[in-house]
Write a structure and sequence with these properties.
heterodimer; A: 82 residues; 6 strands; 22% helix; globular; B: 741 residues; alpha/beta; seven-stranded mixed β-sheet; 7% strand; GTP-bd (chain B); cell membrane (chain B)
């Protein structure tokens, strides 16, 4: 499969969320911020210390830490087009 | 019924507060929600000849009650029964904003949608068919631009019109898919049959909350009807187990997906038109590429902070001068009005010097707040939190702690009280406690006058640089203390960091002025109330008990001796201290000087004999290790009431030792000249002031927020111990090395 966790995405790489593994509070928070399956995500950049990561979704920019990004599974766009 | 209660709801950064300000103007007040310390903004305005009361709900992304803000927003809607909710929606970020809208519809409350920032959306090539959106949602949609106030009257009119109808709540029914819908329907039937919580919220909504395992609703349900409640919980568990097996997903996740699905379907059907592809890079992103750049970002951040200082200290100097002159004039006026004695002393030395000495720094605080409001409203502060989260985590804190630190005085000039309240965005009690306990190390507005005084007197060549250094020290101390706390008494894992970076916006002048004014007013009010009382208390402590009559007589005898050789008619004038300052014969100048010295000696003796003086003297045994004499000790004791008091008590202490009203030396110059002072003592005192026990108000607030007086006491002891250790190390170390002595 071509699914990779959001943490592994490179800057400017784009993909679609296929699964959010987080549950409970973190899961709820992730969804409330709009990170749900089917959403297109583009990594915009990382903080100077490589963490947290900034992503663009639905016309806005969100930030999350790498260990949170681990819980979000992405299908990369280029593979998706194949 | 001629008053409507209308609630304003919306996501953070959707322009909610701007619109609220535009609608209510000066007719607003800020308080706290009862029981919790979430800010409650209320205002009123007139529309259709009616009085409308507006409540600005805390900004939320959802009504799932994840945070205290969400819970509060939800409870206002459920318990205060506003007629209408005005839902502010950011048109340039419609999809995410409508998630909250859907939840409002599910609740059933009548909604008017303010499609805000249509100008920004249009600029991005996004066109929204408001009429179509209104038709699809079955609710009025009004286009607004909060920054300019465009559309606010139409919005208000639409809200009032809907409120006038006084329609019943009609909850929106969304399909959540074949796994959830049947169970939801059954739960709804059971709830309706037993009228379970139906006075509070719609039946289907209650069922939904059981499926979402909403703690707050389930708790209320258990109290209302334990049997039915556990029955509903069992049904929810059944669905959860089934979904877990088939999709490995939780009901709340499926519900959220369907809500987003509903929004997406809505927008796809001709509501939104995009001129450009989604790949377009917005100006905001371009700016971010520079401002949050790996190397440039931190450099720019440092530069921004330095610029803030430079701006604050350079430009506040002039109005500070005006205020100082004004208070000096007022003091002079009072001296000429009031007869000599205790009343005159109380008014001039106690009240005007005490309160005026602090209010004199208001321009500095205003300028600092102005700078922070600019950073905050432009969206830069969120970037700073983003860049710094990794560092914060290193010390067991959270990127959001940054906000609390900033409000507390992270760029100098805040207040620990709102900062402690700002920690409420932190979910983990350990991170929150660690932040609460270390926020008082920040350089709050009340410490600035102390720094300004001492830095001005001893480090005047490097004022801006020195202030930056003090900021760095206060951050380091807060970090080290936080690390210490998080690895000892507050051990535990960290909480998620999910934050929106709002697009950069040019702040509105009005918004910045309101922000600045709110904070400056908090400072002034504190100076006007607590400080007035404390100034009077301290004046009393410093004036009583008076010198015994025998000592007074001895000083009088000395004066008599000095003037003995003068002609009879000049003696009285000399003793009254009314010799003119200029064109005196040399002989008289000498007499004047001698008299002054006696007066100062007497004032010194009087202060030292007073209650405050005795306290200060007793503390010298300990504080001499930091280089403080009894006068500094008196000032520091006063600083427990409010840190500003360190300056005003020092002022009182020194102005009592300096009697000649013609000699208008400011406290700054006085200290610079005094032999008991040198840069090392000043630095030691600055650091002690930075770290020791927070002011009374902060301790009270901190104890309340932390949930126990134990923490209030802990904070006082902890801070003072740290302060003492640091001051002793600096003073003793400096003396050993011979620096600044």
């Amino acid at each position: 499969m071509t699914d990779i966790p959001l943490r592994k995405m490179a800057s400017r790489q784009k993909g679609v969320i296929v699964r959010v593994d987080a549950q409970g509070e973190l899961g709820r928070r992730i969804r409330d911020m709009g990170l749900v399956p089917g959403t297109t995500v583009e990594v915009q950049g990382r903080a100077p210390l490589k963490d947290p990561v900034a992503v663009r979704i639905r016309d806005c920019t969100l930030t999350l830490r790498n260990n949170e990004a681990d819980q979000i599974l992405i299908q990369l766009e280029d593979k998706w087009n194949e | 019924m001629n008053e409507h209660l209308i609630a304003i709801a919306g996501n953070p950064n959707s322009g909610k507060t701007t619109l609220f300000n535009a609608l209510t103007g000066a007719r607003q007040r800020v308080a706290n929600y009862p029981g919790v310390t979430v800010e409650r903004k209320e205002g009123s305005c007139k529309a259709n000849g009616r009085e409308v009361r507006l409540v600005d709900l805390p900004g939320t992304y959802s009504l799932t009650a994840y945070s205290l803000e969400e819970l509060v927003a939800r409870n206002v809607l459920l318990t205060e029964n506003p007629r209408v909710v005005v839902n502010i929606v950011d048109a340039s970020n419609l999809e995410r904003n409508l998630y909250l809208t859907v939840q409002l519809f599910e609740l059933g409350i009548p909604v008017v949608i303010a499609l805000n920032m249509v100008d920004v959306a249009n600029g991005r090539g996004i066109e929204i068919d408001a009429a179509e959106l209104s038709r699809k949602l079955g609710a009025p949609v009004v286009e607004t631009v909060a920054r300019s106030g465009n559309g606010k009257d139409a919005l208000l009119a639409a809200a009032v019109e809907l409120a006038d109808k006084n329609a019943a709540w009609t909850p929106l029914r969304i399909s959540y898919g074949p796994d959830i819908d049947p169970v939801l329907d059954e739960m709804e039937r059971k709830i309706l049959a037993e009228r379970f919580l139906t006075g509070l919220h719609p039946a289907r909504w209650t069922a939904l909350k059981y499926l979402e395992s909403d703690e707050d609703v389930i708790k209320k349900g258990k109290e209302a009807n334990p049997d039915l409640s556990s029955g509903l919980e069992k049904m929810a568990d059944g669905v959860a187990a089934h979904l877990q097996k088939t999709f490995s997903a939780y009901p709340e996740a499926i519900i959220a997906d369907h809500r987003y699905g509903f929004v997406a379907a809505l927008l796809k059907s001709g509501v939104v038109k995009r001129k450009h592809g989604a790949d377009r890079i917005y100006l905001s992103d371009r700016i971010d590429r520079v401002l949050t750049h790996r190397f440039l970002g931190p450099v720019i951040m440092g530069f921004v902070l330095y610029a803030l200082y430079y701006f604050t200290f350079t430009y506040s100097e002039i109005p500070i001068g005006w205020l100082e002159d004004g208070f000096a004039a007022l003091s002079g006026l009072m001296e000429s009005w009031l007869p000599p004695g205790h009343l005159r002393s109380l008014v001039t030395k106690g009240i005007i010097d005490g309160v005026g000495g602090v209010l004199g720094f208001v321009p500095l605080i205003v300028f600092m707040f102005l700078g922070i409001a600019l950073l905050e409203d432009s969206g830069y502060l969120a970037r700073a939190a983003f860049m710094l989260d990794r560092v914060f985590r290193l010390f067991g804190l959270h990127g959001n702690s940054f906000m609390a630190y900033i409000v507390g005085g992270g760029i100098a000039g805040g207040c620990a009280v709102p900062a402690v309240m700002a920690t409420r965005t932190l979910r983990s009690s350990r991170e929150r406690l660690a932040t609460i306990l270390t926020v008082p190390f920040m350089n709050c507005g009340a410490k600035l006058p102390v720094y300004a005084l001492l830095v001005g007197a001893f480090f005047s060549e490097n004022e801006a640089r020195m202030m930056l250094l003090l900021t760095l020290i206060s951050w380091s101390m807060a970090f080290l203390a936080a690390k210490l706390l998080r690895s000892t008494i507050l051990k535990g894992p960290s909480t998620p960091f999910l934050l929106e970076l709002p697009p950069y916006r040019l702040p509105t002048l009005r918004g910045i002025l309101i922000h600045t004014w709110e904070r400056a007013w908090l400072y002034i009010r504190k100076a006007g109330t607590i400080l007035l009382a404390v100034s009077i208390l301290f004046w009393a402590l410093m004036n009583f008990p008076e010198l015994p009559e025998s000592e007074k007589a001895a000083f009088d005898a000395k004066r008599e001796a000095i003037v003995a050789h003068l002609p009879e008619d000049l003696r009285a004038v000399a003793l009254e201290g009314e010799l003119p300052g200029e064109n005196l014969p040399e002989e008289m100048t000498e007499v004047r000087g001698k008299l002054l010295a006696v007066d100062q000696a007497q004032a010194q003796a009087a202060l030292k004999g007073s209650v405050a003086g005795r306290m200060g003297t007793a503390l010298e045994y300990v504080t001499r290790f930091c280089g403080f004499d009894w006068r500094t000790n008196v000032a520091l004791v006063g600083g427990f009431a409010a840190k500003e008091m360190v300056v005003s008590v020092l002022g009182t202490a020194y102005s009592m030792g300096e009697v000649d009203p013609e000699e208008d030396a400011s406290l700054r110059e006085l200290l610079a000249k005094d032999s008991a002072w040198n840069p090392l003592v000043a630095l030691s005192l600055i650091l002690f002031t930075m770290l020791y026990v927070p002011c009374v108000v902060s301790v009270v607030c901190l104890a309340r927020e932390a949930g126990s007086w134990k923490w209030g006491l802990f904070s006082a002891v902890f801070g003072t111990s740290v302060a003492f250790i640091v001051a002793v190390l600096v003073y003793q170390g400096g003396q050993l090395l011979g620096i600044g002595v």
